[in-house]
Amino acid sequence: MRKQKPQIHFYKKVVSIPIYCGRFIMVFSNDKEKIGNLIPCPKSDLDHIYAFTYCCFMYQGHESFSVVFNFWNPMARMSIGTITHEVNHAANRLLASRGAEPDFLNDEAESYLKGWMADQVESFMVSCGIMK
Hints:
By secondary structure, the protein is an alpha+beta fold. It has one domain (about 10-125). It is about 35% helix and about 25% strand. It contains four helices and four strands, in the order E-E-H-H-E-E-H-H. It has helices at about 30-40, 45, 80-95, 110-125; strands spanning about 10-15, 25-30, 50-60, 60-70. It has a four-stranded mixed sheet, with helices on both faces.
């Protein structure tokens, strides 16, 4: 009996970031070759794809910030905590690249950006059939 070959998945969505400019790239994939062709990341990161963030790289002439999630990793279930963890990294890197200083008493701009990014990820998950 032959073993079934694991399915390879690659979903990508690129959106323009309002106010701050640049691109927010969301990738849902277990295809390390395609991820490596899209995002300039160390090859060692691709050997253990689960969830990671890459920031401040150029994509089609625009500064970009990316989150990558592997919903098909048999070793670890994707959780809302993991998704918000990566969104937090991406938003913090975006704000830092724009010279924004953290302000824990006035964090509305930061909260709106993170909420927007999380909503983008959720909407993409729904359109890919990962979430209802």
